[in-house]
């Protein structure tokens, strides 16, 4: 039996409340957040995935963990404690004036206007406590700037893992620079770090990737020159949320199978092929509701064929498979107010 590659990750692990605007469609509750999505997608792609987080002791956490475990994500390092927090994000799927799909994320209770639970970083000393228990990993992923994230990245760097950093902001500049020092791959959205290129005109990380939504992405690999790669055309987009997470998981799946060694041996052609693979996954996911819609609606065995269709610019016809044990049980499809009353 071939060894399965392993990815650990720390950062945003949230409960997504997906609302598609249809009156007769109750919200769906799925594990989300950048870290949660990337590690769940990698599990779908046959990796061993170990998220590390500090969640609250409540019903939202139970739904989140149930969903991750349904995809065989390993959850022993998701601590559940009274002082933790399980972020809740409302993912609302809408249509624009011309009928084009769009989405927005909401972080407040739609009725009361109060803030929903937000992210809490793992306490730094907890990293020391669990270090000896942590599995070896081919890839370590993190998406938040914090002392615990930096220390974990250093631990896994010393163990030979490929370190992937995907920040959403520069919340602490000194710590952000520490993150760049330890990272092998940096990926960021241009609307999140709009000044990165101007501030860092010389490369700080071996592979830097800047995404621009439907405009595609740019990268620089061991040089100071940015190279653009256009996005795949997608007909009949349903929901673009989660596209970036699929892109990240996709290039990890190609570049990190054997840890940092496989990345260091990669040529520029390998880098481009890995990015295009990630972009193809992103394009396919845009055909479904939710940040990980592929996983709930598409047979994994058909994924390679679908990717080939995308590369050949063929229209991808999709139809939802019957939901199986990998989706949430019917008891989890209730009104958001019921959920919030239990948090």
Protein model, in words:
- The structure is a single chain.
- The chain is an alpha/beta fold and about 350 residues long.
- It has twelve helices and 13 strands.
- A nine-stranded mixed β-sheet has the order 5-4-1-8-9-10-11-12-13, with helices on both faces.
- Helix 5 links the parallel strand 9 and strand 10.
- The chain is globular and about 50 Å long.
- About 5% of the residues have low confidence.
Spell out the key features of this protein.
single chain; 343 residues; alpha/beta; 9-stranded mixed sheet; 4-stranded mixed sheet; 13 strands; globular
- The stretches of 5 or more residues where confidence is low (pLDDT under 50) are 322-334
Major beta sheet, strand line-up: 5-4-1-8-9-10-11-12-13
Report the portion of residues in β strands.
15-25%
Distance between the ends: 43 Å
Number of strands: 13
Question: What's the total helix number?
Answer: 12
Question: What is the share of helical residues?
Answer: 25-40%
- Helix and strand succession? EEEHEHEEEHEHEHEHEEEHHHHHH
């Amino acid at each position: 039996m071939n060894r399965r590659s392993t990815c650990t990750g720390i950062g945003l692990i949230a409960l997504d409340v997906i609302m598609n605007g249809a009156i007769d469609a109750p919200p769906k509750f799925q594990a989300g957040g950048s870290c949660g999505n990337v590690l769940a997608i990698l599990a779908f792609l046959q990796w061993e995935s170990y998220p590390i987080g500090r969640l609250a002791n409540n019903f939202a956490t139970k739904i989140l963990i149930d969903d991750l475990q349904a995809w065989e994500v390993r959850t022993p390092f998701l601590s559940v404690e009274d002082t933790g927090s399980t972020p809740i994000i409302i993912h609302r799927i809408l249509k624009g004036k011309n009928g084009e799909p769009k989405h927005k994320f909401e972080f407040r209770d739609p009725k009361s206007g109060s803030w929903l639970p937000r992210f809490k970083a793992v306490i730094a000393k907890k990293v020391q406590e669990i270090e000896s228990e942590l599995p070896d990993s081919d890839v370590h992923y993190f998406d938040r700037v914090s002392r615990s994230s930096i220390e974990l990245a250093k631990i896994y760097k010393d163990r030979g893992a490929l370190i992937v950093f995907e920040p959403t902001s520069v919340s602490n500049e000194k710590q952000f620079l520490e993150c760049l020092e330890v990272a092998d791959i940096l990926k960021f959205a241009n609307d999140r770090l709009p000044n990165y290129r101007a501030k860092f005109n010389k490369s700080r990380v071996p592979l830097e990737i800047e995404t621009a939504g439907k405009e595609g992405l740019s990268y620089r690999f061991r040089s100071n020159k940015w190279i653009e790669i256009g996005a795949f055309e997608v007909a009949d987009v349903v929901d673009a949320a989660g596209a970036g997470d699929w892109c990240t998981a996709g290039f990890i799946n190609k570049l990190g199978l054997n840890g940092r060694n496989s990345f260091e041996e990669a040529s520029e052609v390998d880098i481009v092929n890995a990015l295009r693979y990630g972009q193809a996954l992103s394009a396919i996911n845009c055909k479904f509701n939710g940040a990980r819609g592929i996983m709930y609606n598409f047979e994994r065995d058909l994924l390679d064929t679908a990717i080939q269709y995308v590369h050949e610019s063929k229209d991808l016809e999709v139809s939802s498979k019957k939901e199986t044990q990998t989706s949430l049980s019917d008891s989890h499809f209730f009104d958001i107010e019921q959920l919030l009353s239990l948090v």
